[in-house]
Every structure is written in C-alpha cells, then in structure tokens.
Amino acid sequence: MFGGIAKKMFGSKNERFLKTVWPMVETINGLEPQMQELEDADFPAKINQWREEVAQGRSVDELLPQVFALVREAGKRALEMRHFDVQLMGGIILHQGRIAEMKTGEGKTLVATLPLVLNALSGKGAHLVTVNDYLARRDAEWMGQLYNFLGLSVGSIMHGMTDEERKAAYAADITYGTNNEFGFDYLRDHMKFYADQLVQGELHFAIVDEVDSILIDEARTPLIISGPAEDSTAMYKRINTIVPQLKRDRDFNVDEKAKTVTFTEDGVARCEQILGLENLFDAQNIHFQHHILQALKAHELFTRDDDYIVKDGQVIIVDEFTGRLMPGRRFSDGLHQALEAKEGVKVEAENQTLAQITFQNFFRMYDKLSGMTGTADTEAVEFNQIYNLEVSVIPTHKPMVREDFSDVVYRTQQEKYEAIAQEISDLYTKGQPVLVGTTSIDKSELISNLLKKRKVPHEVLNAKHHEKEAEIVAGAGERGKVTIATNMAGRGTDIVLGDGVRELGGLHILGTERHESRRIDNQLRGRSGRQGDPGSSRFYLALDDDLLRLFGSDRISGLMQKLGVEEGQAIENKMISRAIENAQRRVEAHNFDIRKQLLEYDDVMNQQREVIYTQRREIMASDDLESMIDEFVDEVVDVIYQPVHMADKEGPDQETLDMVQAQLEDVFGLKRWLDTSAGLPDQETTRETVRKILAHLKEEAGEHYLEILRFFLLESLDRIWKEHLLTMDHLKEGIGLRGYGQKDPKQEYKREGFELFQDMLFRIKESTLKALSHLRLQRVAEEELKHKEQPQDLNYSGADESGEAQKTYKREQPKVGRNDPCPCGSGKKYKRCCGQ
Question: In this protein, which residues make up the domain named SecA family profile (predicted)?
C-alpha cells in the first residue's frame, strides 16, 4: 500500500530515472541549429577531430551531446530520418550500459546508431549483435549510409565468411553480426596457432538487439565447437530397436515438466534381459544406460515438426522461441544421434567438445554491454542478477492505442481450433488483416488446413517456409491478409498497415495458446499497434494446452465447472486469466533456475577457460618462450622426484626408484644423454641434462627454435584441454548423485573441477617437455619435399626466408605395436593415432 502511495507521489523508479536523462536530450536539441549549418564535408572532419581527442584521453561521455546531435543531422541527410527525442533517450540509455525497452516500430535500428558512433571513437570497435544474418546484413547496409556519411567504416559478420573477410569486418569502426558468429569467432580464435590468424580483436562495446531472445531464451544452449569422437554409430541403431520393447509407466517414467526419463526397477531388469547384461549399472555398462535413456527421450519428449524437422535426410533442430530452423546445430550428449536413429536417417558420428562457452559468459566479457528489445521488463530481475544490466522502459513516440482483449478459454483443442478458424474467417470477410501466432509448425499447418476448407487465402510462415520471411511479415498489414506464423520473437521486420486498414481496426493479433513466457506473448502482441496505429489482440486457450495441462489445469478446470461452461462455449474471466498468468510465472521462475544453475556450473569452467585462453594468447604473442619452458623443467622434475623425497628415513625402496627412473626416461629420454646404468641420477643432474637436451635442440633448429617451442606448447595445451573438457562433462553429468550422500553437488563440482584443472596444467607442461625431448630435426631439400609424400607423423613445418630449403620437425618414433600406447603421448593406441 505504501509503495502505491509513494509511486503516485514521486513516480515509478523508471519515471524518476527518465527525468534524469531528459536534460541531456534538451542539450542535444539545443545543438541542432549549429549542426544544420555544417557542410557535408564537415561531418567526417568532426568525427576525426573527436577521435583524436579521445585518443589523447578525453572521455566519450563528455562528447555525447555533440556526437548525438551530429549523428541526428547525418541521419536526416543520409537516410532522410530524424531521431525523435525518445530515440535520443534510448541512445543515451544504451551508451550507459543499460537495456532500453522500446515497443515494436519505435525505430530501434536507428536508435543504435547514436551509441555505436560515440563508442567507435575509442578505436576499439563497436558491435551490434542481432538474431540472424538477414538482419545483420540489412541493418549494416541500411545504416551504413549514415556511417559512411560520417566517414566511419562498417562491416558485417556472416555465416560462411573466410578468416580474411572476418578480420576486415572486425577491423571496421562498427561491426554487425549474429550472436552465434560473434561467439564462435571467439572460440575459433582460441584454437588458432598464430597471432596473425586472429580475427576478432577487443570486446569493447556491444549492443544486443532482441536482448531477451539472445541473453535469456538462448542462454540454456552453450556454443560448442566439436570434432568427431571414436564412438561407433551402430550403437544408436541397436538401442533404437530396444525402445519399442519398453513400456511407459511400467519400464520407465516420463516427467514432461523437467523433460527427463527415468527407469523403473522392472525397466532395468528388462534392459538387462534384452542386452544380456548382469548389471546395467556396472561401470563397464554405464554407456548402455545412457544411450537407452537418450533414445527414450528422443521417442517420448521430442516431436517431429515441433522440436525438429527431417529435411534432405537430416534431423534439423527447430528453435523453440523463434520457430527458425537451426542447420548445423546438434543436440549434445548423443541425443541428436538418437533422433537420427528414430527417424531412420544416417546416424552421424558423435562429436567431442573442443571448445565451448555460454552466451552468458561470452557477453559478460565485453567492457560495456547494453541491449534493446520490445519486451524486457518481465525479466528485469534476471538481467540484473546475471548480467548486472538495468532495464529502462522508453515511452512511445505516439500513444499506444491497441486494444488487448481478455483470453477466451475452451474445454478442448477441437473446440478451440474451430473457434479460431471461424474468427479468422469473419475477420477476412470484414477485410481486417490478422496475424496468427502459433507455438509450433504442426499447429500452424493444422490452422492452415482448417482455413483451406473454408477457402480463406493465407500465408504460412514457419521453419519450413522461412525464405520469404521478411516479405511475408512486411505485407501482413495489408487489407484482407491472413498470416500464420510460428513464434514472432526477434523477427525484426515492421508490419506497416495498408490503405483503409486503420478504419477497420488495424492489425489483429490472434494467439493460439499462451507461451511458457509472458514475454513471448507480449512480443507477439507487439507486432500490432506500432507508432500509434490502431490494433487489437486476443489469445485463444484450451484446458489441454501444454501450459495449462502441466502447470495450471486443475484449478482452471474447477473454475470452469463452477461457472457451468458447456461444450463449445468459451469463457472470458479475470480469475482464469490471473490463474494462467500465475502458471506462466511458475514456468518463468523454473526456467530462470535452470539458466542460473547452468551459469553456476559454467562459471567453474569459465574461470578455467580464462586461465587457459590467457595463457594461450601469451604463447601466441610472446617472443620469450624459453623462460616459460625453463620453469616447466623445474616443476616437472620436482614433481617426478616427489616420491623420492616423501620416503621415510630409510630412504626410498627400489620399486620407487625404478618407477621414478622409468618416468624420467618416458618424459625426457635420458639414456641417450646420461649413463643411468648406475641407478637413478640425482635431481640436479637430471635438471641440467634436460637443459642440455633443449640447448642441443636450439642449436639444431637455429632461427626456427621459437616457432618449434610455440607449436608444441599450443599442441599440448589444445590436446589436453580438449580431454579435460570431456572429463568435466562427465563429472557434471554424474555430480547430481552426490546429493544423496548429503553433499552439495555444486561445491563438489567446484572442488573436483579444481583438482582436475591442476592435474591438467601439469600434464600440459609434461607433454610439452616430452615432445621437445624426443624431437629429431632433419633438413630436407625443397625439391625433395615436392616429390615425396609427407610422413604421417609430421607435426610442424615452416620455410626459411630464402625458400631454398625447408626444415621438417618430426618426433622420433620407436618401433611400437599397433595396439601399444602411441609414443606421441596422446594416450591413444598407436593404430588410432600416429599409426593410422
């Protein structure tokens, strides 16, 4: 109650904040006459002047009024578009590192130009992150006219670009691209071997368009770069034949809310019988358990034409939030292979993670991050807790006049869809355009079939027909147009009303069910009523909709019975609408917990990733790697000799001495350099001998020594980091069971993850020294190289500047059997590694 009184007296927190921004808007307006007097040639000159001032230490904050006023005038001349006052307000908020919530049609694309130009003055680049290639290309070309008028360069990052093209785009003052491309470029850069191969540069300032879609909806899916693993694909086909022999609720239970499948005791026994196993939970059989559960998930929880489609013999994921196809993306942990086996298409080999990062951790690396969207306020708490971003709601340029009708609820799906088809038919007859929002492909096609029976012409926009997306959406406001679309999140195209449509009531939005998130519903509603246009919206629901069935059906069904609702009759009731909204809040809270937990686990990996990637960049750029190798020698020798020092007063036994000597031979190959027949050499002698080995290598390699060190440091780091990622994946998969032992799984994951990381760092040092100690160099004439096939165990090659001869650096390979461990130290069998 007191909060309500205070709000009336002092205004909301958002209103109070906007009042502090307004004086800056008035200052910018005051500079407009001055900017109007400038010649066109003066605009680049002004930008260059300010760029020099920033380089000399002037703050971009001081320049904000002048820069914004200049950009506004440039917009008028280059685009015939003048920034409104509320757009200036949005630009200020974005520059301050906040989220600007602006309704659809309020010109977010133009708003972004203001802070992008201001922050580009630093020379460190400014990024605009959007949801698809089409928008990135469109906006870079469209707003590029303004940037070029100011003398600034603009680039865009597209799927399929070469490294050279990417490097050029990142070198521009302002760069547009998708969240995936920015994230994958970061990961790819940390898999390169040479500093001149890096493309991305600094992560200085970013504006994330459709920020809720990218930082919240997609936050549960980490970006992963993977390579093929050695597992056989035949396993998935075999397991797929077992699924029909298992019965739901008898052999396994399905939790649709949590999207999980668990065995019953009878199910475990039945699987053991089918597979001929004594114990399904035995360590050597654990992979069977995993694959069967994934196959059951594929059959019970994933639906064709809803969660994925099958196209050209491939299973392609459908984005649950936007309805877009996601070619190239694959479900992890063998689930995608289980779906391929289910659908009878070619089962691709399972991949092993080489590099990964969540969007949460990637975008938190920017020095300054901001975002814009039409719907962020419902997720303000999450933006604040996860990203430390405040949400500011910007008022519309013209008052909002759209009418949002109450939901109508029916008993069954059939009743609901008949009512929807009738409503669309009536609106079509009237001539009022209607945009129908569905949550899945099959539901959009169901409505399409119902309309065909009624001979109502319409367009269908879903993941199967996305090529003409922008054209279809742009025309959805024409008289008599009926457009059926899967989720409208982040579509990015304004719907402009055709002639005579305003008089008919504008664009009508018809939602076929409530989404799990209120924000997605608001995004759909927001397609109508842009810039003061008339419009309307209504959602149609049924008691057996997924949301109501899983999260609120009993209470709502009870209310409908009390109200005496008959078959075919709909009801509009505030109590029911409130119960539905509460159900959505529960789902939103549940999904927030999932994202938060993912982040808490990934924070452990993120700390490790930052250490590894920082070390990697140092190795790539440093000209003094010898001191790093020298430290490795001291540490590795110390660790190998530890068992000797830890022995009791009587000294180490012969077994310990033999073990230490064998390890020294394995890592350094001391027998070629030191007489070890008398027993274990002392620690200092070993240390000096290893340094002699490295000194000899340096003498042989000459000017190539630094690059040899760099190559083997990076090779060892990458290989062992990749193995570590797999180990951490396995640790996370089983860590939840620690809860049964009264231990906090997250704390256990942190503790064990740290121990594994320490072990990994040592193995990188040991592996690097092992490679260098066993290296043999031979000089090969260039003509010989042209005609002779390169050996399979070639690890590194580089030409000297004269080009007359080339040195090939090659590990000495002792004779080994095909099933013996590979001498390169990879941990694989020789036949699977260098002996392939």
Answer: 3-572
